[in-house]
């Protein structure tokens, strides 16, 4: 489900809960909504409101952490790609083919996207990314070092390429985590209860309706941000591929 669709559904759900509360208010006898009853309702909903605020804060913090980690992984991967290319360049012209494969791998990544679904699966004549990096590693293993310097460079290149392969598999595994849907569902139910009580207590005038509309839109926006940042490689709030764009400009230089 897209983040925008999820946010829209939350907004509709909260608006409907508010409308139901107002409809119930119009049908209840007056003594059900006297000052003592409203005080009890406010105290009861304060508990749910506190729980909802804590849950919403935890989800936002978790989504922001996922986004920050993905951004750091992007920069780290770009740095390792440049490091691998420079190590191979220092080895000698024997690594030209491996360097070309590395460049093609990054070009493919930029064209296909930075998600587990697009990088881990073959597409037409293109291999999955893990097969590309394994081909680079195969070229590195087939080298025949002539001295201690080349042996050291070969070992370093294999080490860095192994880190790149590990980054890929971490992306594949973390890409299947997604949102804690049970947690989010319970949170939306709590919020629906809160907005229903708002409608139950509020007089149906334009000012109150406008404020409740803005509040519902704000909460739906928070849910949208949570969903979008929890999937940092797709959506509107996504990790920039600028580090890779910068890296590819430096690849292949002598």
Content of β-strand: under 5%
Radius of gyration: 27 Å
Helix content: over 70%
Q: What are the secondary-structure elements, in order, as H or E? A: HHHHHHHHH
Overall, the morphology is: rod-shaped
Instruction: List the uncertain runs.
Output: 122-127
Q: SS-based structural class?
A: mainly alpha
Put simply, the count of helices is: 9
The beta-strand count equals 0
How is the main sheet built?
Answer: none
Polypeptide structure, described:
The chain is 78% helix and 0% strand. Residues 122-127 have low confidence and may be disordered. The protein starts with a helix and ends with a helix. The protein is mainly alpha-helical and 254 residues long. Helix 1 runs antiparallel to helix 8 (206-230), helix 2 (35-91) packs antiparallel against helix 6 (148-174) and helix 2 packs antiparallel against helix 7. The protein is rod-shaped, with a radius of gyration of 27 Å.
């Amino acid at each position: 489900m897209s983040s925008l669709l999820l946010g829209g559904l939350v907004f509709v759900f909260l608006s409907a809960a508010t409308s139901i509360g107002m409809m119930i208010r119009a049908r209840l006898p007056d003594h059900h909504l006297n000052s003592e009853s409203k005080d009890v309702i406010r105290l009861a909903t304060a508990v749910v409101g506190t729980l909802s605020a804590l849950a919403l804060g935890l989800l936002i913090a978790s989504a922001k952490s996922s986004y920050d980690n993905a951004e750091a992984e992007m920069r780290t991967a770009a740095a390792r790609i440049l490091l691998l290319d420079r190590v191979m360049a220092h080895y000698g012209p024997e690594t030209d083919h491996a360097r070309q494969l590395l460049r093609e791998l990054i070009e493919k990544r930029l064209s296909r996207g930075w998600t587990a679904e697009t990088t881990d699966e073959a597409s037409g004549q293109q291999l999955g990314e893990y097969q590309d990096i394994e081909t680079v590693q195969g070229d590195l293993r087939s080298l025949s070092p002539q001295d201690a310097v080349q042996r050291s460079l070969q070992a370093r290149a294999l080490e860095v390429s192994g880190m790149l392969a590990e980054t890929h598999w971490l992306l594949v595994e973390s890409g299947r985590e997604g949102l804690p849907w049970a947690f989010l569902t319970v949170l939306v139910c709590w919020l629906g209860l809160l907005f229903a009580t708002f409608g139950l207590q509020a007089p149906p005038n334009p000012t109150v309706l406008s404020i409740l509309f803005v509040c519902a839109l704000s909460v739906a926006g928070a849910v949208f941000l949570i969903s979008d940042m929890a999937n940092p490689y797709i959506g509107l709030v996504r990790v920039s591929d600028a580090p890779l764009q910068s890296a590819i400009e430096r690849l292949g230089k002598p």
